[in-house]
Each structure stands twice: as structure tokens, then as C-alpha cells.
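#struct-help
A.M.: can someone run this one for me? Single chain, 162 residues.
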Amino acid sequence: MANADSKEDVAPAAATKKKSGKAMMFAGIAALVLLGAGGYLYTRGHGAQAAVTPPKPPELFLPLDPAFVVNFQDQDATRYLQVGVTVMTHDPAAVQAMKDNDPVIRNALVMLFSNQTYADLSATAGKKKLQTEALDAVRKIVADKTGKPDVDALYFTSFVMQ
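D.P.: on it. C-alpha cells below:
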């Protein structure tokens, strides 16, 4: 009987060792998972702070309506140019400045467009040069009014010569 008692004592001890081994293994895996998740969140948080740039404000488009219609001289005849213009900025203050100074901007662009020649505008390079000059003219007016030239782009939305 003493032998039977010792077998009973050994069996629960062996079961306890098996259970404690599984519990230890589970605890180890859980600790590794938690450490890994914590490390990921720590590095993600610190890496994100260094790489975060403030979001860029949305693009704001302002069409300068109605389209510009000007005449200009060619060697043979009077020519006409009709140009639709839209400006783009990220600054609402620049949009308001352009709206408030629409007559000034329109005057500057009419003068610029009417000083062109048919030969210059027939080539793509001439149109691009005119686009750059028009953007510079609008930027100058906006800078005079707001203190900064917050006009990012100027687009020709239509361009008709005859």
C-alpha cells in the first residue's frame, strides 16, 4: 500500500509538472507577443513623429471668367486670341485677394495677351512662355495685396487663335 500511495503522489506531481510546463510556455509566448507589439508601437510612434509632415491644404481653383478675348497684329491681318484662364493656390487668402482684385488681374493679362504675336503663339514653347509670364503677373498682383505670392499655377483652359 505504501507503494500505491507513492504512485498516487507521483501521478499528481507529474500532471502538475506537465501543466506548469505548458503554462510557462504559454506565458513565454504571451510575453514575446506583448514585447513585440510594444516595440512595434514604440518605434512606429517615434518614427512617425520624425517623418510626419503637415498635410498640404487642398488645391483651390479660381476660374477667371469670362474668357479673355484680345486682338493682336500679325503681318497680314488682325488676329484674335481667346484664352480661358484658371489659377490654382492652396491659400484661401490668395483666392480672396484674386477675387477682390479681379479688374487689376484682368487688365494685366489683357495687356500681356494683346502684346503677343501670332508666330510666337503658334508654337508650344510660345504658349508655355506666355503661361509663365501670366503666372508671374498674377503672382505679382497677389504679392502686392497679401505680402506673399501664393499662386501655385496658372492654366489655360481654352486657347483659340484665328
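A.M.: thanks! Strands lie at 60-73, 78-89, 153-161.
D.P.: also worth noting: The chain has two domains: 1-52, 60-161.
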